[in-house]
């Protein structure tokens, strides 16, 4: 008797092999009606899905896909550094793609990686991503997925991130403990979770220390060019508030460095006239004048943990063992320098 | 009659299929004796190598491999940014590997990429690479190869690079035109061509302007940690020469920034007491105090050109057209700031 293949089923039913395969695996994007007709025919012809699936499963690509928002970024370079080192130790190769902070790129890149048959995917979401169907697709295809740094809380996969709210809270509390009272915030894009959480941490620190939150001290910097956003917001804050502001907590270091450049140009003394606190602890923060206090995000550790968990899931899948998704919170650290 | 496969030949001869495949393609790393025995048997059994080879050839992976020395580097991030954008436009994916400036890593990575069947390879060589057999292997396998930035002059492939000697010559000539006479050089590793060329450009500029070259003003910084190399060499040069040195030309920006940090700490005024000139024009150079004069290497343009040429060769190969290797020199530019 001829061995029945997926193709035979597909031909008899006038469907694509992909649809037949999905129907057999009970994927959600195939209608119940189609599923029934496929499964009925498979039973009738004694199709053996297990041996097929097994064949597919053993065909490892030994490739991991990584999607990051941008390449020219100290944080992501450090994350990639860790990912490359860990992958290489396991004889895996890494395809890297950058979304350029665009959802449509990210969506397309997920499809490319799925088509290429990668063994697992790591993603740090773009600032524009607020639809997660492409992530659900990875899960539906049974490909291990780990989100890191810029994550989506509701997607059912492993996640590695920092506690942005807590880190921001600690930085602003430190400023308050040093006597600063009129503390402004240069915040990032409205969409990404880490930008929201850093803002909330800032606000909570003020409130917990009895300082009334003043919305006019929050500057939205969303031009995707952090340095010049910081520079122009520094200019604006002096126009708006004069010397009635004594510190700025920025959503990232580059924004703080933009502000420092403006203040240095204008001869405004840091930290005497205005203090600054950044976020991310880029290498640059340690070498500018004055050196910038910041929050170290432990980028290398984040990359290492992310790929370790991904490999755990790949291994579990290979040996048909259950895997429980993990949520790992990477510790952050205040790094105090001369800017406050 | 059964169709004769590579495996059949390999089995009969007690060789690996890889060796048989190479013997049939006349690869140089198989002995003449083995080649003869394989080719004789292939003739005897009517093995059809052409259809086999043809099958292999049409199987594009749509993947490009890139090997860079290090990930955490503004220059390479910018190069990769360009490579990703150009690859994506052509629906290609990019596997990135970092050699960590180690020849043995680079060699292993070339093998991994060849085994994966990538359609082309881009490499910027590690500082330790001075054996080029692994590059010759890529060429022997008929896989398009482009070397960029850190190249090997003698390898027969396309190359994209800057004229390091000319750029260094221009920077040092500029310093001389500004009245600096005792100009030191913090040079990089002895091995890489770009480090050698920058040193030669420095030396020639001095000589052409009637300044005697003083070897005691050249500091070798080869600890692979540019910032601290620059910092400690700055300390050393003051111990060795006191104020009998008025400018330093460094092989890269990070080294200059290390030196600036030391001088700032010691209250030594830049450029009044000592001037600095970097190389590479990292973003950081524009935001430190004082801002650093440097040579812009046009990293994005280098990445773009490199992958464009790679695609030209891939396309020529696909359509069986001859391809002449290219040597592209990317223009550099002096960027004058406050450090001199």
Automatic annotation (TrEMBL), chains A, B:
<keyword id="KW-0805">Transcription regulation</keyword>
<dbReference type="InterPro" id="IPR000843">
    <property type="entry name" value="HTH_LacI"/>
</dbReference>
<dbReference type="InterPro" id="IPR028082">
    <property type="entry name" value="Peripla_BP_I"/>
</dbReference>
<dbReference type="Pfam" id="PF00356">
    <property type="entry name" value="LacI"/>
</dbReference>
<protein>
    <submittedName>
        <fullName>LacI family DNA-binding transcriptional regulator</fullName>
    </submittedName>
</protein>
<keyword id="KW-0804">Transcription</keyword>
<dbReference type="GO" id="GO:0003677">
    <property type="term" value="F:DNA binding"/>
</dbReference>
<feature type="domain" description="HTH lacI-type">
    <location>
        <begin position="4"/>
        <end position="58"/>
    </location>
</feature>
<dbReference type="InterPro" id="IPR001761">
    <property type="entry name" value="Peripla_BP/Lac1_sug-bd_dom"/>
</dbReference>
<dbReference type="InterPro" id="IPR010982">
    <property type="entry name" value="Lambda_DNA-bd_dom_sf"/>
</dbReference>
<keyword id="KW-0238">DNA-binding</keyword>
<dbReference type="Pfam" id="PF00532">
    <property type="entry name" value="Peripla_BP_1"/>
</dbReference>
